[in-house]
């Protein structure tokens, strides 16, 4: 360890990455997937066993967006103890920003053929574009907004919450309230975001048809690359001294305050970064699924994200990615085969992970377990005896 | 002498008393839901002094610490640091950065960090978010951390996770973290609770050596330990000072015997 530190004194980031085994595996998989899957889809002929069907590529692209969303939640929950149950809101806002761009791209190809106004506005007898729709005909503007709007909301929300020292369950509850409030707001037609139908019927992105395989492959690659970049960014944050402060806040917040750190600023920083990542995930998600509606703000969805992270392994970053893939694959499978069992399975999974795998699936793999490695059963035993000790000891 | 002149002299005396203090607490009262935790508490600590504060449960020792470190605001009274900084207007982080370190009653360290990282985080220096993001470990910092590890007798636990330390070692680590902050004044709340006899003795030695170049206020129950500290003692009772002086002297005070030692 010391060798690495000295060797990479000039480029500490590379040193961290090389030592981060899980991260190296994740990045390798992402690079391999962003080459092989588009090749398998576009170049390998359809009859071949190696051909990747477009639906599968799009599905995997969707999972990649979920993985990025899970990563953003792990960054705040796993490393700073901020349990946000409203991260779907940032995801959806990023998605709406991209959806607005895609709506403007439709131009006069809509049902009503209005070159300025999206169909739903014509339907509502609106005569001109609301002010907040201006600029969304430009791709760069939409991308900036997909990051800026979630970031701003997180900044303002976080500023108020962290300054007032709202923590723990109370913070989780108000994040739920936030996403629920947005859900209700976006349902209203007057908001100008298409009411409960949301935004859909997208045609093309930067002039490329969204239906074509090459566009879908590009979106898949963009999602994989973005996940890789955000992973490295998040890893840089968690490995810095700032990351150590975040973990310290998670473990003993008051100690950090008495050590002279402004806890609220640290939380605000990481919460905002996380919201921006969630926004990016949303903006990549929408062109791949072809629709964004207020359903994305549903509180239950935000809770599901937390389950992905818990299943994969909280506080590892790559665990969150793995969890997002496992749970979403299971969801795709169950909702296809026996949809009525999906929620039971999800609940059961969460209970099983909490009891048996407190460090998630990643924690059960010995090579990735923390220094105080322990088997599943030993972990369970320890938890039970801890529980007894806590009951016996004084508060 | 006229009354006005008397008041003037009294004010001048108070000012003089204030002038040479590191911590000046005067007439501090605080009430929680009708319960008077502190009742016009006054005492002061001189620079470089080691002071023990004793008192029965509920005497207001921890509340006093809370007020000095900005966790609780007093209803009335003055709390001055270095005779001119008003601590009642500052928050925890500001007070910590001024140079007041606090050790909690229950050892509070960053359990999932190594001993080394615990000290690193406490290391005096930039506390800003972006400073922390781009911080690189310097040799000077490394050296200071190594020195502190020696002081707190944890050199061989350097890379151990703090969660794996014994109770006594955690207490020392926390004291070490305070030292890394380079405080002028250290507030230490029951440092030897739950320690073995030899650990207690070592802790007394550690605190005495720390008090050579900074002021230390120790709140404690353990009389043996207070005797080991060999310093001036302040006895609190029902939120105000009951007696002050050397331990032998205080122990002879009938009121002290009545409320505390006699039982």
From TrEMBL, chain A:
<dbReference type="GO" id="GO:0005886">
    <property type="term" value="C:plasma membrane"/>
</dbReference>
<keyword id="KW-1003">Cell membrane</keyword>
<feature type="transmembrane region" description="Helical">
    <location>
        <begin position="24"/>
        <end position="44"/>
    </location>
</feature>
<feature type="transmembrane region" description="Helical">
    <location>
        <begin position="341"/>
        <end position="362"/>
    </location>
</feature>
<feature type="transmembrane region" description="Helical">
    <location>
        <begin position="169"/>
        <end position="187"/>
    </location>
</feature>
<feature type="transmembrane region" description="Helical">
    <location>
        <begin position="76"/>
        <end position="98"/>
    </location>
</feature>
<protein>
    <submittedName>
        <fullName>Amino acid ABC transporter permease</fullName>
    </submittedName>
</protein>
<keyword id="KW-0812">Transmembrane</keyword>
<keyword id="KW-1133">Transmembrane helix</keyword>
<keyword id="KW-0472">Membrane</keyword>
<feature type="transmembrane region" description="Helical">
    <location>
        <begin position="50"/>
        <end position="69"/>
    </location>
</feature>
<feature type="transmembrane region" description="Helical">
    <location>
        <begin position="217"/>
        <end position="234"/>
    </location>
</feature>
<feature type="transmembrane region" description="Helical">
    <location>
        <begin position="138"/>
        <end position="162"/>
    </location>
</feature>
<dbReference type="GO" id="GO:0015658">
    <property type="term" value="F:branched-chain amino acid transmembrane transporter activity"/>
</dbReference>
<dbReference type="Pfam" id="PF02653">
    <property type="entry name" value="BPD_transp_2"/>
</dbReference>
<feature type="transmembrane region" description="Helical">
    <location>
        <begin position="265"/>
        <end position="285"/>
    </location>
</feature>
<dbReference type="InterPro" id="IPR017778">
    <property type="entry name" value="ABC_transptr_urea_perm_UrtC"/>
</dbReference>
<feature type="transmembrane region" description="Helical">
    <location>
        <begin position="305"/>
        <end position="329"/>
    </location>
</feature>
<dbReference type="InterPro" id="IPR043428">
    <property type="entry name" value="LivM-like"/>
</dbReference>
<dbReference type="InterPro" id="IPR001851">
    <property type="entry name" value="ABC_transp_permease"/>
</dbReference>
